[in-house]
Amino acid sequence: MTETSLVLPFDLSAAVAHLSNCDPCIARLVQEAVAFDPNIDHKQSPYESLLEAIAYQSISGKAAATIYARIKALGANGGPPTPQEMLNLKTQTLRKAGLSGAKILAMKDLAQKTIDGIVPTHEEALKLSDDELVERLISVRGVGAWTVEMFLIFRLGRPDVLPIHDLGVQKGWSVAYNKKHMPRPKELLAFGERWRPYRTVASWYMWRAFEKAGYAATNKIRPPKLKRKRPKATTSGRKSKRSKSTRSKPKINNPR
C-alpha cells in the first residue's frame, strides 16, 4: 500500500480496477502513465489554499510563486496572513507585493467570508459534500468552479470530480480517444458518466495523456464542433418565406 492510498478518502485500487474494467482506454493509460498521486496537503486550510489559488490566477507559475512568497511574508507568524490580518492590510501594501486590484478585492472577500464562516475550516470541509462546498466557495469573489474543483481534487482528495472546462482534461480526452476536436463541456460530462464514482482518477489520466502527447500534437487539436441550428419549419415542414406582396409596407403620412 502506497503512502497516497493512506491519505486518500477512497480506495485507489478499487478506483483503478473499476475504471480499467469499464474503459479499455484508461486501462491502457494506467499501464503507461504515472500513477494517481494528487500530493494532498492536509495542513493547508481552505482559506490558505484559496488564497494561494487567487495569487496564481492568470499569470505564470514563476511570477505567481514570487508574489505569493511576498504575501506570505506579510503574515505575523511566518505563514500567510490570517483572515483578520488580510483585512487589516492596506491596499497599497498588497499592490507593492504584486497583486492586481481585482486580486486584492478577492483576497479580502475570501478573508471576510472565512471569518463569517462561509469558507469552512479543513475539519468542516471534510464533512461537507462536493455540491455544498462548491456552493459556498464560488460565492467568494474571484473564485470560480474550476478553482473549487482543483481544491476538491488536490486538497481534499475527493474521488468523483470532473473538471469539464479544464483545457488539459479536454485535450487529454481528445488524445486518449483519438479525436480531432476537443469535446464540448456537456459532451465530456455525458461521456464521463461511465467513470462514476471515480471521475477524479479518470481526469488524472486525461491530464497524463495530454502531457505525454506534448504541445506539438495537442496544439493541432481543433476547438469543439459547434452544433448547427436547424432552420425553423412551418407546419408543412418547409422553411417559412414571406412573399414581397405580403410584406408590410411602411406607413407614409401624406402631406395635406
Describe the structure.
The protein starts with a helix and ends in a 38-residue tail after the last helix. With 256 residues, the chain is an all-alpha fold. Mean pLDDT is 89; it is low at 1-6 and 242-256. It is built from 15 helices and no strands. It is globular and about 55 Å long. It folds into two domains: 3-40 and 160-218, Endonuclease Iii, domain 2, CATH 1.10.1670; 46-144, Hypothetical protein, domain 2 (Endonuclease III, domain 1, Orthogonal Bundle), CATH 1.10.340.30.
Helix vs. strand class: mainly alpha
**Percent of residues in beta strands:** under 5%
Count all strands and give the number. 0
CATH-defined superfamily of the largest domain:
Hypothetical protein, domain 2
* Distance from first to last alpha carbon: 98 Å
> What percent of residues adopt helix (DSSP H or I)?
40-55%
If helices are DSSP runs of H or I spanning 4 or more residues, what is the number of helices?
A: 15
Predict the CATH topology of the largest domain.
Endonuclease III, domain 1
